[in-house]
Give the backbone structure.
Amino acid sequence: MFLGHVAIGMAAKRAAPRVSLTVLVLAAQLADVIWPALVGLGIEQVAIEPGNTRVTPLNFISYPYSHSLFTLALWSIAFAPVFGLSRGRRAVPILAALVVSHWVLDVITHRPDMPIIPHLGTKLGLGLWNSIPATMAVEFAMYAVGLWIYLTSTRPRDRIGSWGFGVLAAFLVVVYLANVFGPPPPSVSAIWIGALIGAGVMTLWAWWVDRHRTPLER
Ligand SMILES: [Zn+2]
C-alpha cells in the first residue's frame, strides 16, 4: 500500500492540526522509510519476482524490524513523543497510532508475509494485492477521503499552499501508478535507493507546502 498510508497521514491533520503534514505522513509511512535503510544495510531481505502478487513484483522475504507489529509499536514509542510532545495533547497518541496503522494496512494488502513478532509465529496478510482492480479501488478511495479531510482542515495562504499542494497530490498518484504498471525495478539497490530518495522528496515537499496552509482550528 502507498496512497492509503499517505491518506491516513493527511486525514490525521484534522485531529492534530499543529503537527506538520510531513510528520503525519512520515509517521504513517515510517515502516517504509526504515525498510529501505535496513535493506540497504543487508539486515532485511527483498527479491524481485514479477507476479509475486498482481500489484507488486517484490517478494518481501524478511522484514522483521521494519514491518512487525511488535517493532512498529517500539518505533511508535520512539517517534511519537519526539515529534508530538510540543504539538498539543493529542499529537503523541495520534502519531503513535499512525505508525502502527502502517502494519494494519499492510496486513490487508500484502500476501501473508507480515510478522507479528520478529522471527516468531505466523505471518499475516489478506492479499488485497492479488487483485489490481480491488487494490486501485481501495487505495484511490482512501486517497480521495484523505485529501478531502486535509483540504477541508486547512486553507491555503498562497499559491504554494494551493498549487504546490495540488502538484504534490498529483505527483504521488503518478509515482504510485508507475510503480504498479511500470516495469519491475532493475535491482534490489534500485529499490532501496529509489525508496529513500522518494521518501526524502515527499518529506521536503509536504513540509514546504504544509507551511503555506493554515490549519482551521476547531
Ligand atoms: Zn509497508
The mean pLDDT is 95.
